[in-house]
Specification:
This protein is an alpha/beta fold. The protein has 10 helices and 25 strands. Helix 9 runs antiparallel to helix 10. The longest helix is centred in the last third of the chain and has 17 residues. It is globular and about 75 Å long.
Amino acid sequence: MPVRRWRPVPLPEGLGISAPEDFVLERYEAEVVLDPGHPGNQGIAGLPEAAGRDQGVAVTLQLQLLIPAGRDVSTLLVEVVNRGQAAHVPFGGFAVTAHRSAVVGPAPPALGRDALVLRDRGGVLWCGWQWDLAGADPRLLSATVPEAPPEVHRTHPPVTVTLATAAPTTRLPLFGRPCAASPYPVEDLSDGQAELRRITPGHDTEELVPRYQWGFVREPGHPDGVSVWCAAGFAPGSTYRLTFRTSRCPVAGAAMLAVRDVVAFLRSSDPPVPSPLAVPPATVLGYGNSQAGRFLRQFLHDNRNADDRGARVFDGLLVHAAGGLRNDLTALHAQPSKAPPPGRLPDGPIASGALLDRMAPSVRPRVLFTHTAAEYWRGDAARTHLDPAAGRDLPDPPGARHYLFAGLDHYGSRRPPGPDVLYPVNDVDAGLLLRAAYWALRRWVREGAEPPPSAVPRFSDQTVERRSTVLAQLRAEPEPEPEPVALEPDDGRPPVMVAAVDAQHNERAGVRLPEVAVPLATLTGWNPRPPHGPGPTTLTPLTGARFPLPAPSPAPGAEQRSRQIAEDLAAQALLLPEDIAECVRRALSGQAPAAAAAPGESPATAAVPASRDRGSR
C-alpha cells in the first residue's frame, strides 16, 4: 500500500465550516510513495526520472475529513476540490463551490445530522491535488509533488500559458492567476526565443507578436512576480499564447496517482498505517466540479480506477460542468489551474464512451456526467454524447448517464467578480439538480436502482442545433437585436452543437427546471462581452445571460404549473421530493438561493444592472 504516512494537522483559522453535532472535522497530510515501475503508474512524464534513491516518488496531499464521531462511515463522498476550496459540504442546495481563488467563503446555514451527504453514516473527504496552490492560502488544500530534474525538462518543449483580459491593458501578470496559483517562473527575462502569439476573435489563426514589441517585467513584492508588457496592448476577446523557458518542472500527474492511492488506503481492511476510519466504507463516491470535473475525466481517460492490487477505487463518480475537456496532468509543464482557452478542444477522444470503454468491468465506476448550457456553448459538451460530423447520437457507455441542466450557466448563484458582460447575468442555480443527481448515483451504486435515462440534446428527436443557428434565431427578432457575435469558424472541424430552443428561446432538451419550462425570462449559457472598438463582440466563456420576458411577473396559474413540473421532475428522480417546495419558490420569485457571498465577492447581479427589456446594457 503506497500510503506511508497519515498525519493530523490543525484546522486553519477562518475556514468557514464546522462539524454538526456527533461529527468531527479534521485536516490531514498524507504522504504517498509511488513506484514508477508499477503498471498503474505509467504514462506520467517525468515520474521515473523524479525517483529517489529508494526508487520511490513521494507525494504529499492535504486532506479534510468530515465523518461521524464514531468513525464508522458507510458512504464516503470524495470531493476532488476545485481550486483548493473545501469550505462547503457538497449538495447542500446552495452554491456548488465558492469559485473564488484564495478566498474561502462562509459556509451555508448550519448543517444538521440529516444533511444529504451525511445521512446514514455518510462522510466527506476533500482532497487537494494542485501543486501550484501550495503556500497560497492556509485554508486551501494543495499537494506537494516531485520535480523532474533539469536535464529532463530542458530537453522538452518550453512551457506555454494562455492569457486573456476583460479590459484593454498593456500589462498582464503571470503571478496570482488564476486563483492565487503559483506560475511557472520565467528562467530568463531577456530570452529572445520566447514567443507571444495573438488569436483574434472569430479566427483560428495565430499572429506572432514581434519580440521587440513585448517583454517580461519584474513586479516588486512578489517572489515570482513577472508580468508581460505589450506595446500594442492586450485586447479583450483575444487570446494570447505565451511560450517561454522555465526553471521548474513539477510532476503534476503524480498527485492524480496519489489521490487514487489515498482513496484505496481508506478502503483497505489492512492499511499500512492507522486509518482515521474505524472500518472501511462500503461505498466510495467521487465528485468533481468544473476544473475538478476535468480532473476526473482525465482520471477515467488514463484508466486510473484500480489500486495497486487491481481492486476498484471509486464505485461511482459525479462529474459536473466539465464538458468534454480534461485536465491534462500527464505531460511535462502541466498546468492544473489552466482554464480551457475559448474554442480550443483537446487532442484525443472527447466522447464519454472513449473514457470508459478501455476499462475492465471489474474496476469501471458508474458515472453521471452533468453539464450546463455553458459547456455546450463553449463547444465541447455535445461531443461527449454526439458525433456532430456524422449527425448521429452516440449510445451511453455501460454504466453512464448524461444530463444537460437546461438554461443554466457554469456558475449559477455564485460566481467570481466579472467578467464584464453585455447583458444581465443568469443566476439560476444547479444546486437542487445536483442534489438529486448525487442521490441517484448513490442509489445506483448501493441498491442497483437505475438512474433516470440520459436527458440531453439529440439528433433523433431534433432537439439539437448548430450554435450559430440558435444565435441567428434570436437576432431574427425585430426588436431588440443583440450585438453581432464572432464565433470560432467550423472550417475543417465538426460544428458546435447546442440545445434547440423554444418560442421563448429557452432550451428544449435536458432537465428543465420551472424557470425554463414556465419562464419569467430567457435563460442562456452564453453572454457576449461588451464591444471594445469596431467589429463584432465575442462570447464570454461560461457566463450566461438573463433576458426578462415582456411580462416578468408570474402569470395566473404559474404556481400550479411550476409545482406540476417540480413534481414531475421528482417522479423521474431528477429532483428530490423534499426539494419541491424550494424549487417552486425559486421559480416564482425569480431569485437565486439565499447563499452568502464569499469575502471579496459581489452578488451575481452586480456585474450588469438588472433590466426589464432585452436590449438594455
